[in-house]
């Protein structure tokens, strides 16, 4: 079975791990600091704080913005459940918003409809590596947390995503754009926010007490993340090549592709097609040894009590019709050819 995701790990990655083990410096150390410097320099922001995983990054970002009980945070329903967890960790109330059926990201008008006097932030996902239309959303006047867990390396209006909002977060989970098993990053240009994140993430040897968290990234994790980060451009180029191959093979078949926002350059964390025969197509490709799947396990509004499913009409439609086709740098040319031909034949047959 060709899996839905598979990390690309090279001999260079393992050399970093070997060097760390020989040095015996496995907790936070020089490699963690080097990763932070490389990240902030590439992104063009003043601060990058390495943490243990993406959810920790999001939790710290929310706390640094002062989000707490009685506040509301707007998040898209069509996303990973980690966003729901992070908001609820703070005691705030998640307010869910629908998505545009073409870009799979929320629009400014959708966010505006969900705003209230209690809204304190928007978590803006760049779904499947396709940048959201950030600029008009910024004009709504709310603090923005960019969730770049799926979009490391993507550009919007000539600037990398993660450099637009008040604060941004990244994930280095096994299936993300770069892989260190776990790991994440909080990035910001705001000195005050960075100071708060660092304070919240340093629980030991303090003269004053407050609730703090042990979300630090180890040197072991940072070494692997740093090695992967140096290969990011090659990873992105390979993803785009595979996406173009799939698109070329599927020309003329009545499928919907995720549309990029004007002025954006996606990185194809997922290659998503939509069809009203999604379940049949998933079944056929799995029979052929290809793990296609729905790209989101369950939209967030289905975990919570909601007054009306019609409020999430696009999310519901995309959830039911969406298919994620394997796309990652570790795919061989032979595997890409097999997936493309199988998907084309199966799509024409349903």
Commentary on this structure:
It contains twelve helices and 13 strands. The protein is an alpha/beta fold. The protein has two domains: 219 residues, Aspartate Aminotransferase, domain 2 (3-Layer(aba) Sandwich); 118 residues, Aspartate Aminotransferase, domain 1 (Alpha-Beta Complex). It has a seven-stranded mixed sheet, sandwiched between helices. A three-stranded antiparallel sheet has the order 7-6-11, with no helix packed on it. The chain has a three-stranded antiparallel sheet with strand order 10-12-13. Helix 2 packs parallel to helix 8, helix 3 crosses helix 7 and helix 9 packs parallel to helix 12. The model has no long low-confidence stretch (mean pLDDT 95).
The value of Rg in angstroms is: 20 Å
Q: How many beta-strand runs? A: 13
Helix content: 25-40%
Strand percentage lies at: 5-15%
Q: In whole angstroms, how far apart are the ends?
A: 21 Å
Q: Count of helices?
A: 12
CATH architecture descriptor name of the largest domain:
3-Layer(aba) Sandwich
Task: Give unreliable regions as ranges.
Answer: none
Query: What is the number of domains?
Result: 2
Question: What CATH first level of the largest domain would be assigned?
Answer: Alpha Beta
Major sheet: order of its strands?
Answer: 1-9-8-5-4-2-3
> What would CATH call the homologous superfamily of the largest domain?
Type I PLP-dependent aspartate aminotransferase-like (Major domain)
- Run of helices and strands: HHEHEHEHEHEEEEEHHHEEEHHEH
The major beta sheet can be summarized as: 7 strands, mixed
Given helix and strand content, the structural type is alpha/beta
Mean pLDDT: 95
What global shape is seen? globular
